[in-house]
Design goal:
Order of helices and strands: HHHHHHHHHHHHH
Number of helices: 13
Distance between the termini: 24 Å
Length: 228
Amino acid sequence: MIVKVSNLRNAVAAGAGMSFLDTAYETNHEMDDALLDVAEKLFRHIGHQKTAIEDIAAEFGRSHASVCRFFPTRSSINHRVYARWALKELDLRDQDAGSITLALAMLANVLTRLNHRARARVVCHPNEHSLWMAAAREDWPVHHAYFQSLATGFAALVGRDADMQHLPDHALTKMAKGVVTAMLAYLHPVLVEQRMNSEKDADADLAAHIGFVLKALNLSCLAEAPTR
């Protein structure tokens, strides 16, 4: 089926209100964004573990106390930068989906690109990958929210397929959560790094796994079809 794709993040927001990720990143003062710009720059340059509030204050040209007015702890800065990066990733997911017209082909494209970007972070942006790893290992709420947002977007995408439009929302949600679970080894930063250390042909393995997931979606669709 050929479909027109609206922004998935907007579709999620329309259905469920502002997401936790949006709330985590929401800024009430232009100073928030300016400080986060500085924190993000330092995180990418020297890493989040080596960046202190004093470093951010010095780079920004303000006192430690003025930075603490907006971000009282290092953890609050870490979580806000992660939320910013995760929201950008969701925006890229929308772009990836919009580049193809077939619903399940869009899903395959999004899953492929998400994995490629996760792998690129490991190799090309290790300090950024380090923050994603910390969020996963320390079980941050914003990390959960990112994967929940992925599942919600996947449900909206799968629901546009002609063979699945008869399914109720709860069935699409269940299927989308299954996609996230099935793809976790290719999306979770810790597991992505582990796979990169053991795989011989990452792209072929990814393509085969995505093919399996798409086939499982079609089988699930038949199982959920109403009896007549």
